[in-house]
TrEMBL record:
Its EC number is 6.1.1.7. This is Alanine--tRNA ligase. Zn(2+) binds at residues 563, 567, 665, 669. Coiled coil: none annotated. It is found in: Cytoplasm. HAMAP family: Ala_tRNA_synth_B. It catalyses: tRNA(Ala) + L-alanine + ATP = L-alanyl-tRNA(Ala) + AMP + diphosphate. Consists of three domains; the N-terminal catalytic domain, the editing domain and the C-terminal C-Ala domain. The editing domain removes incorrectly charged amino acids, while the C-Ala domain, along with tRNA(Ala), serves as a bridge to cooperatively bring together the editing and aminoacylation centers thus stimulating deacylation of misacylated tRNAs. It comes from Phocaeicola coprophilus DSM 18228 = JCM 13818. It is an enzyme of class 6 (ligase). Keywords: Aminoacyl-tRNA synthetase, ATP-binding, Cytoplasm, Ligase, Metal-binding, Nucleotide-binding, Protein biosynthesis, RNA-binding, tRNA-binding, Zinc.
């Protein structure tokens, strides 16, 4: 029986034999593509080629791509683990043709690989073809059906609707019919009873799709119409885990050697056995699936967080923790202990896992511990909600309460339902779903973008000239209109551009497009599918006029200084903290820089100062930039260039070198380190477990900081009569102030005792109750002390109301002995009513309450009002 690793290898080797170039998997986390957070299909890394933004280096390509899907046609996060064949992270085996072969070849090879190479029985295979769409003027894909007819009888070729058999990249863009290959893994008796063709695309767990062959031949325009693509594309994707299951004769993906080693360790750690209890089995499958997603995401540079892609990863991790907590009895972090077995099984195909093992385990452990604390908090809050419901005679908690637990505290709804059931209660499911829908609509409205079709003025590809020029003659290739949040913007593609498009942590350039007729502001430059897009608020009136693209050079220079400084920081951090330091993210703006790096403890002030000194020494050396463009990647590695984990590099790369600092980088940089001026680290903090963040400024911004520090010192010296030793002068004043403060406290205690005694002397006996009232010019703390001392001295038959004024702020204080509370008096109610006379409000406990206000003149009347309301 073939192992999973052997099956993966056989696929790419088969297509290599058909003239395909084997390429490595792209990172699962996508950077520099605003339309997508994660790689969710094998074709993602080739989008720029398919869209015509970049020429194909190879006409035929094959790979095994790590993917992440948490929503889609057949897959929702909350379903993963409950069935046997859907996953969050999965591998997709694929082969592509960019304007080379088409349907005939790919169908023939698909059959050859499955039947001739893998020895699958063709009687168990069914294929679907697009049935056509009259409303779009599309006929049935008879061409594909004809090619399949050479291998299969007619009853194994099934018509599929537009939903299943017409693939689209998005609302617009390349699309086309597709053929899915399904396999029937049921027993012979089941096959005899019901033909497999009747179960295709019916969500039967044993009749599943394993391979999809997409024939991209159209482009979908914004108005919904279709136009033929100039170069047809083949894009296939085969579910690796499903293929392994089929070849290993299993009825569940989780029974294969992809997951079983992980599930065995889960059983060892939890003391549970897979196969004994369905709920335990589901939990084990959830954990086994999710551990892969989390580990690969962290490896590829996406840490769990509360925003965008990071939130998705945190949500997946918390789902696994919750299942382990509820069904596997795991009250302590334990998933991080599964990382070694994951690496043992997948580290050969993906060595980046081993390289990042320490970080993966550290981040995962801290995230697990954090969410377990959240679960405990949620359970306490839910218990409070349940008690309130029972006290009110209810058997159901509201959907709003359940949603608050979910949204504010991250408490899963199904866990809420489980705990409620155990306590004889239910939740308002419809109410919860209504709140969820409102949240989704808010998010959808905030992110809604209306994108028009590209209007092409001339054919061509963009040439980036920004490393050498900040001004360059250009022309518009195409443009489109984009509407978002009631704002209309335009995206412009230029033939040649000096504008750097936001990527690699560096913000995009701004500037102007200048023609003899007008000047158009470029407010930002973004990258979409490897295409630099210039964003403007208006279109040029003369679209075909020759133009000069002019970058804002002040902003560019400041960005370049900060970007070059991140490289020097990276090297200095390795020098001071150790070679385990790796960049985990950065942000480069004209005003500052941010650098995230792996390190497992706080960087001390002494270490930060050493790092700063090392970088500033390099700046003073004025080391010139050495730049290597289009350098073969192996040559770059021979140079010792540092690459980022989770970054996709081509066969040729750009390397930036400042002396001993050598890094892969596509950003803009200073011509020599001296142009950075100076660096000043302004903060160091934690981003996530095992990841620290440094924020710093360079050049003129450092001068601004030093000016502020100098001005502050001068002002301080002036306050201390320009003392030559400022530190000694401040220490002396602090000591003197502490002594004076102690004296004041002693004086206040004496005064409080004196005032208390006078109040007792002036007390009135009304119906056997000692009633004390007064208006005093004293601070609130002193009045509170006096009130508590009186209550402590007279434990029965006491009623006190004191009005006080300090800094022109009136305060009403009421206290009483417990017997007066039992008699029906309530200090909180009394002060709330009387506070109206001082234009204020307040409250407190029945035996002690205060109220502040704005009108000191009404204080005496407020004191009398309390006495009146109390009936004395």
């Amino acid at each position: 029986m073939l192992t999973a690793n052997e099956i993966r290898d056989s696929f790419v080797k088969f297509f290599e034999s058909k003239g395909h170039q084997i390429v490595p998997s792209a990172p699962m986390v996508i950077k520099d593509d605003p339309t997508l957070m994660f790689t969710n299909a094998g074709m993602n890394q080739f989008k720029d080629i398919i869209l015509g933004n970049h020429p194909a280096k190879y006409k035929r390509v094959t790979d095994s791509q790590k993917c992440l899907r948490v929503s889609g046609k057949h897959n929702d996060l909350e379903e993963v683990g409950h069935d046997t064949y859907h996953h969050t992270m999965f591998e997709m085996l694929g082969n592509w043709s960019f304007g080379d072969y088409f349907k005939k070849e790919v169908i023939g090879w698909a059959y050859e690989y499955l039947v001739t190479v893998l020895k699958l029985d063709p009687k168990d295979l069914y294929v679907t073809v697009f049935e056509g769409s009259p409303e779009e003027g599309l006929a049935r894909d008879d061409e594909a059906a004809g090619y399949w007819g050479q291998f299969f009888p007619e009853d194994h070729i099934i018509n599929g609707n537009k939903h299943d058999n017409f693939w689209e990249m998005g609302d617009t863009g390349p699309c086309g019919p597709c053929s899915e290959i399904h396999i029937d893994s049921r027993s012979e008796e089941e096959k005899a009873a019901v033909p497999g063709r009747e179960l295709v695309n019916k969500d039967h767990p044993q009749v599943i799709e394993i391979w999809n062959l997409v024939f991209m031949q159209y482009n979908r325009k914004a108005d919904g119409s279709l136009e033929p693509l100039p170069a047809k594309v083949i894009d296939t994707g085969m579910g690796f885990e499903r293929l392994v299951r089929t070849l290993q004769g299993k009825t569940s993906n989780y029974d294969t050697d992809v997951f079983q080693p992980i599930i065995k360790v889960i059983g060892d750690l939890s003391g549970k056995k897979y196969g004994d209890d369905e709920k335990v089995d589901v939990a084990m499958r959830v954990v086994a699936d999710h551990i892969r997603t989390i580990a690969f995401s962290i490896t590829d540079g996406q840490l769990p967080s509360n925003a965008k892609a990071g939130y998705v990863i945190r949500r997946i991790l918390r789902r696994a923790v919750r299942y382990a907590y509820t069904f596997l009895g795991q009250k302590q972090a334990f998933m991080y202990k599964l990382v070694p077995v994951l690496i043992e099984n997948m580290g050969g195909a993906y060595p980046e896992l081993k390289a990042q093992q320490a970080l993966i385990e550290k981040v995962m452990k801290e995230e697990e511990e954090s969410f377990l604390r959240t679960l405990e908090t949620g359970i306490r809050l839910l218990e409070k909600t349940m008690n309130e419901a029972k006290a009110a005679g209810k058997t159901e908690i509201s959907g709003v309460d359940a949603f608050t637990l979910y949204d504010t505290f991250g408490f899963p709804f199904d866990l809420t339902e489980l705990i409620l059931r155990e306590n004889g209660l239910t939740a308002d499911v419809k109410g919860f779903e209504a709140e969820m829908q409102k949240q989704k609509e808010r998010a959808r409205n905030a992110a809604a973008v209306e994108t028009g079709d590209w209007v092409t003025l001339k054919e061509g590809e963009t040439t980036f000239v920004g490393y050498d020029y900040t001004e360059y003659e250009t022309s518009i290739l195409r443009y489109r209109q984009v509407k978002q949040k009631n704002q209309t913007l335009y995206q412009i593609v230029l033939s040649d551009t000096p504008f750097y498009a936001e990527s690699g942590g560096q913000v995009g350039d701004t500037g102007v497009l200048v023609s003899e007729f007008e000047t158009i502001d470029i407010i930002d430059t973004k990258k979409e599918n490897n295409l630099p897009i210039h964003i403007t608020k208006k279109l040029p009136e003369h679209l075909d006029a020759p133009m000069m693209a002019c970058v804002d050079t002040d902003k560019r220079a400041a960005c370049a200084a900060n970007h070059s400084c991140t490289h020097l920081l990276d090297e200095a951090l390795r020098q001071v903290l150790g070679t385990h330091v790796e960049q985990k993210g950065s942000l480069v703006t004209p005003d500052s820089l941010r650098f995230d790096f792996s390190h497992f403890q706080k960087v001390t002030p002494e270490q930060l100062r050493e790092v700063e000194h090392l970088v500033n020494a390099k700046i003073r050396e004025n080391i010139p930039l050495t730049e290597y463009r289009n350098l073969p990647i192996e040559k770059a590695r021979e140079l010792g260039a540092i690459a980022l984990f989770g970054e996709k590099y081509g066969d040729e790369v750009r390397v930036v070198q400042f002396g001993s600092s050598i890094e892969f980088c596509g950003g803009t940089h200073v011509s020599a380190t001296g142009k950075i001026g100076m660096v000043k680290i302004i903060s160091e903090s934690s981003v996530a477990a095992g990841v620290r963040r440094i924020e710093a400024v360079t050049g003129a911004k450092v001068e601004e900081i030093f000016d502020t520090v100098q001005d502050t010192l001068s002002d301080l010296k002036a306050l201390f009569n320009n003392a030559p030793d400022l530190k000694a002068a401040i220490s002396k004043y602090i000591d003197e102030n502490a002594g004076l403060k102690k004296q004041v406290e002693e004086f206040m205690k004496e005064k409080e005792a004196s005032v208390k005694n006078k109040l007792i002397e002036g007390a009135k006996d009304i119906n056997g109750v000692k009633v004390i009232k007064a208006v005093l010019p004293m601070p609130a703390d002193a009045v509170k002390n006096i009130a508590f001392q009186l209550k402590g001295q007279f434990t029965e038959n006491l009623f006190v109301v004191i009005g006080s004024v300090f800094d022109n702020k009136p305060l009403l204080t009421v206290t009483m002995s417990e017997d007066q509370v039992k008699a029906g008096l309530n200090a909180g109610q009394l002060v709330r009513e009387a506070a109206k006379l001082i234009q204020g409000g307040g409250g407190g406990q029945p035996h002690f309450a205060t109220a502040g206000g704005k009108n000191p003149d009404g204080l005496s009347a407020a004191v009398d009002k309390v006495i009146e309301l109390a009936g004395f």
